[in-house]
TrEMBL record:
It catalyses: FMNH2 + O2 = dialurate + 5,6-dimethylbenzimidazole + D-erythrose 4-phosphate + H(+). It comes from the Bacteria. This is 5,6-dimethylbenzimidazole synthase. Gene3D superfamilies: NADH Oxidase. GO terms for biological process: cobalamin biosynthetic process. One of its GO terms (molecular function) is 5,6-dimethylbenzimidazole synthase activity. Keywords: Cobalamin biosynthesis, Flavoprotein, FMN, NAD, NADP, Nucleotide-binding, Oxidoreductase. It comes from Ciceribacter ferrooxidans. Its EC number is 1.13.11.79. It is an enzyme of class 1 (oxidoreductase).
Length: 230
């Protein structure tokens, strides 16, 4: 492998206070959006910036296993929504009693309302049969793709674009509708559109489904057995 000349290096160090505040603001105010989408189409250059943010994500062995299928066609989105709807009915049946009623009352997608759908996929063959860093855990390609999704989600927040992740599907149905090759895995369907309001807290918390856990309960020190002294 070639030497690493110093002229490949760039200055590092902390961002300015203002830049840091912007990063944390994007992280803390990012929301999963289901219903607040405005109908205006997203300009191509904006969509490209979001995809470029995704494409700058880390990936195992620099595998870049992702693809992005942009779906604007209303009829195709309608077909995707029908696939969601069937799966969502099955999902409701997995809860019982009041929880089932509460589940049914939640809106869990914006497939038809959002002007743009993006199906994000993961191609496990992208880096060849042996991928640096994936040798002992094959799921690393999926984790890499999720890193790309989070980049897109945060960039979208900064651009005033809402993103909603929809995972309530039989994967085979999405693959059929979108003509995705057999060996490629669907990671998620994403609803995108401009928003001018967002929930201040996760919608599932606001609606009483589940609350944010205290961070202190999730942190250990050294081993699973010890709590940090905070
Ligand atoms: C892997 C994965 C899959 C899904 C989600 C997220 C992730 C990470 N979320 C969104 C999820 O409900 C949401 O992120 C949490 O409720 C927290 O809310 P905020 O994202 O902070 O607004 C989600 N939301 C939804 O309405 N329908 C869905 O099918 C899914 N699926």
């Amino acid at each position: 492998m070639p030497d690493e000349p110093m002229d490949h290096m760039v200055r590092a160090g902390a961002f300015s206070a203002e830049e840091r505040a912007a990063i944390y603001r994007a992280i803390e105010t990012r929301r999963d959006v289901r219903d607040q989408f405005l109908p205006d189409p997203l300009p191509d250059d904006l969509v490209w910036r979001l995809l470029s943010a995704a494409h700058h994500a880390p990936s195992v062995g620099f595998m870049q296993p992702w693809n992005f299928i942009l779906v604007r066609d209303a009829e195709r989105r309608e077909e995707v929504w029908r696939a969601f709807s069937r799966a969502n009915e099955e999902a409701a049946g997995m809860f019982s009693g009041k929880r089932r009623d509460d589940y049914r009352a939640l809106k869990l997608e914006g497939i038809r309302k959002a002007p743009l759908g993006i199906c994000v996929t993961c191609d496990p063959t992208r880096g060849g049969p042996v991928v640096l860093g994936r040798t002992h855990n094959f799921s690393m390609d999926r984790y890499s793709t999720v890193c790309a999704i989070q980049n897109l989600w945060l960039a979208a927040r900064a651009e005033g674009v809402g993103v909603g992740w929809v995972s309530i599907f039989h994967e085979d149905e999405l693959k059929r509708i979108l003509a995705i090759p057999e060996h490629v895995e669907v990671i998620g369907w994403f609803c995108l559109g401009y928003v001018d309001t967002l929930y201040g807290e996760p919608e599932l918390a606001v609606k009483g489904w589940r609350q944010r856990l205290p961070l202190e309960d999730l942190v250990f020190s050294e081993t699973w057995q010890e709590r940090p002294a905070v």
